[in-house]
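Page 42, continued from yesterday. The earlier attempt failed because a stray header line got pasted into the input along with the sequence. Redoing it now with the clean sequence only.
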Amino acid sequence: MSHNLRLAFIIIGLVIMGWFITPTVKWYFLTSEEKKEESNLSLDEMIAKGYTKEQIDNVQKIKRLRREAVNLGLDLQGGIRIVLQADFNEYANRIDRNVSSLTEEEKIDAMERLITRLRGRINQFGVSEVGIRKQGEDRVVVELPGARDPDRIKSVVLSQGALTFNLVDSEASATITTNDLLLGVFTNTAKIPEYDKQVYFYNEKDDFGRRIRGIPIFINKEPSLEGNALINAQVSSGEFGEVVVEFELNNEGALQFAEVTAKNVNRALAIVLDDKVISAPNINQEIRGGRGVISGGFSLEEAQDLARILKEGALPINVSIVEEEVVGQSIGADSVAAGSKALLMATILVSIFMIAVYRLSGVFSTIAMLVNVILIIAVLSPLRFTLTLPGIAGLILTIGMAVDANVIIFERIKEELKIKTNVADAIISGYDRAFATIFDSNITTMIVSLILWIFGSGPVQGFSITLFFGILINLFTAVFITRYIYEEIIRLKLVKKAGFLFI
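This time it went through. Structure tokens are written below.
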């Protein structure tokens, strides 16, 4: 490859990498903490705070910048990690099957649909990088870096999202007395009027604002309308300024809803979510158009969560939390500091070694090593990579790998100098002869990192990705950048003897 062509490759590569790394530099060094906090607001929250269209557009630009930058993982910025267990026994009962009769394909399909629904619910929280992945056959790991409210996250994740509209038996409900309740639990089952009725409970707030089981209410077992007819839900304000959730039904649901309300004027219609009555408004007239309102003394956050649950629909399979971890922001900051310190120490120590052994050539290799680290971060930006502690470990290992190629080259040049008097010829020959060795050794490591990338998960993948691209870029810096520096020195006739390079 000619000298000018090598220069063209370097310029093109650096320009592309500069373009890639720009969002990361802007986000971490040019964006204020206030703007970063603001980027966590959801659209509903911005509207509720009275943001103008221009302000919302500005926040959306910051959100896009955050998505394009290299993100910090749960262990570096804190957040929430939850492991969910899927209940295949309940799933089999729901579809009138025995759990042992479920095929692997059916289980895989159910888990994929579960992950899709969970992702739709959680993505709207505005956290920087939601991580949802399957673990084993029946578990899902949910990681939310930057999330600060575990109770809210759990309520959204655990909500089955099964919505129905059921007519209320007001007369039967009115017969319930305090004697029928024991510690908040309905005990007098003799008062259930007919076989087609069943007892549910209002979802009420206690003095601390927690959602608890309230008074019992009798409703029809057969729902008048299923929640799968719902196509949209959003937060709005009610007649008296209270927070409500507006919903919209599809065409078939709208016709069914109009028919139900027309036939049951002056009756209460219970809105039931996951076997809890959210509200039971009275039907004053026929409701056409497929639009309605759900009210229940919601806070803004509760209404937002309910809207996102209803929009995404019911989970295909019930889940329970088997592991829960909340990583504090201070712990994440400590991890960043420790990782940065380790990276800096590795860079300094390797640089000292290279300069001490190879003098000026060691300086060249140190420059290439620093460029190598910057280029790795640049490559990871468009991949939407999330940097974790194992990822930092991969970067540190890459620093050692980055100078490894230069060590091979320098030692080869030393051997060539023993048999050649012309320094320029020895340098060129040393590079040419060392390339095959460098290529072979790096390719084998890249193959291992690819295997870890494909078959590993979580932290293992983070380590393998940084290692893979680190080695790839190492080849670029060794073959193009350091070689170009030497060729330029030779072209300018700065090399008179080997001692000039202190090799």
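Notes: The chain has a mean pLDDT of 78.
Reminder to self: strip header lines before submitting.
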